[in-house]
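Our consortium's second objective concerns turning raw sequence data into structural hypotheses that experimental partners can test. To show how far this objective has progressed, the report includes one record in full. It was chosen at random from the queue rather than selected for favorable results. The single chain below, 383 residues long, was entered without modification.
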Amino acid sequence: MTLLRRLVCLVALISMAALPARAFETSATHAWVYDMTTNTVLLDKNGDMAVPPASMSKLMTVEMLFEALQDGRVQMDTTFGVSAKAVSFTAQGGSTMYLQQGDRPTVQELIQGMIVNSGNDACTVVAEGLEGSEEEFARKMTERAKTLGLQNSTFANSSGWPDPGQRMSMKDLGMLSVHIITTYPDLYPVFAQTDYNYKDRSPANANNRNPLLKLNIGADGLKTGHTEEAGYGMVGSVKQGDRRIVFAFNGLTSDKDRAQEAERIANWAFRQFALKTVVKAGAEIAQADVFMGSAKSVGLVSAKDLQLLIPAGAANDVSADVVYTGPIKAPIAKGAKLADLVIHLPDLPDQHVDLLAATDIGPAGFAERVMVAFTQLRTRYGI
């Protein structure tokens, strides 16, 4: 049978600040906030809804180029031609790195043009350079999104230019950001670059639009976006100490509101949650009953330290259950998974930890087996 044991001692491992965490009220229409260190979703407001992503969808174009670099299909000094379509974005008023026909920008220059300048022209050059046409590139973007687990993302172009087929959810944008940060650590620092001016063509428009980079709060990416349909949005990442958060939101009414909301989200995520080690590797959490074993119980331990985010002032509201099907029949090998530790946190998802056998438990001796058999017969038949 499945057994559940409530642990109150776990709470004693956690010391907290005095002020309670409060639910965060964002003015964004869609938002998703994630703590990478503990894999915890801190906020989800319509996070799965597919919406116009504007220039934030350039992250997928960047990912496609990063993947091509990682695979060796291109190098940093590989050059691409610039088509009339790419150049047309300058006249249309979209973000640009001011490419001209006849230019041969390198992959390294295009990365900076896409990330720092948010260049629609740079994205088009990359799309045409990698797949021959932007239409084919957009199809490959949608395929790639599915392989990355992005369930609410479809693409019609490489730049985020308004199109009914260009959709992403805030959760997908956040997950894509996590993927980029973890998969391409050598390339990711470009997102923190504050300016880039290709061939000195537009010093007035060379600044990175990320409003957090200048605040000295640990921000190092990722991308802003704006269209009339999408409003003002942002995908951001901030690292402070041992923690890194990623967030995505949209639907703000001005770039000023966007900057203020991004800072509010970062402050809330770091100030209203504390990172605590609640389980130590090898420390006995509980014991499970053993059937027909050389011992009546076996210790349960975690294979690794477990760090969790605890809402400020909520130590007394944390509880944990040990769940297993028992009694567990011997023999039991040390390190075998026997139980599940479920930690309940206020206003956050439950956390699950595998609990393993702390020691080997051999089978019961002959006398013990006979006694167990006799006891079962007496219980069943009234002997």
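The partners drew two points from this record. The first strand starts at residue 2 and ends at 7. The chain has a mean pLDDT of 90. Both points have been shared with the crystallography group to help prioritize constructs.
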